[in-house]
Amino acid sequence: MSEAQQAGSAAPAAAGQQLTNADVQRAVERLRGQQNFVAGLVAGAAAALVGAVIWAVITDVTGYQIGFMAIGVGFLVGYAVRVAGKGIDQSFAIMGAVLALLGCVVGNALAVLGIVASQENMTYAELWSRVDLPILGNLMATTFSPMDLLFYGIAIYEGYKLSFRQVTPDELQAAARGMI
Question: Fewest CB atoms less than 10 Å from the CB: which of 16, 74, 143, 162?
């Protein structure tokens, strides 16, 4: 039997073995080397913006402010950060949570502006040119509901939890062995 065949037949046996602490540390360092904070940030910010716009469009089409849209924003952001950033460190999760919250606030603000524009028979652009930050803050406070806290909280949790890269035991072993 050649060396290549012996190595091939030994691989399944090695895959079933327990990893030592040194193996795990080596695997974690390899996985950390694959992380990309900037890619996760850009993808997460883009997902937050897309989710916010979808939230506003659905609100404008239905005429109802739908709080559970925040959950969709949190999911989009967390998934985008995880896929693009490949993060295993907590910094990725914190980034996902913050971006999910920002996406929710922007989505809610755009939805409120859309409702006001509709009520005032104005275009979105006309209203946007007349609204400044204090007025927008007052609009947000006026339309705020305690239920918003629940949906924002779920979105933040999703943004946090989904931003971590999911590492399987097989990937951990492959990283420990230097195969990825």
Answer: 16
